[in-house]
Amino acid sequence: MSSKDALERAESLLERLERTRQELESTQDPDRAIEILSELAEIAKEVEAELARAKKEAG
Prior knowledge:
Helix content is 90%, strand content 0%. With 59 residues, it is mostly helical. It is elongated and about 45 Å long.
């Protein structure tokens, strides 16, 4: 995977992160909010991994 591919994947994940964050703002269900927070944490980890991969490939 090239650094460009990793960056594109990170951008896609950031878009998913934003959609999920918006879902969190609109929910009134505390249980669903907890699920969404878990999803946000997982997406953030994936973004971090893709950025690290891009940095490694570029460097």
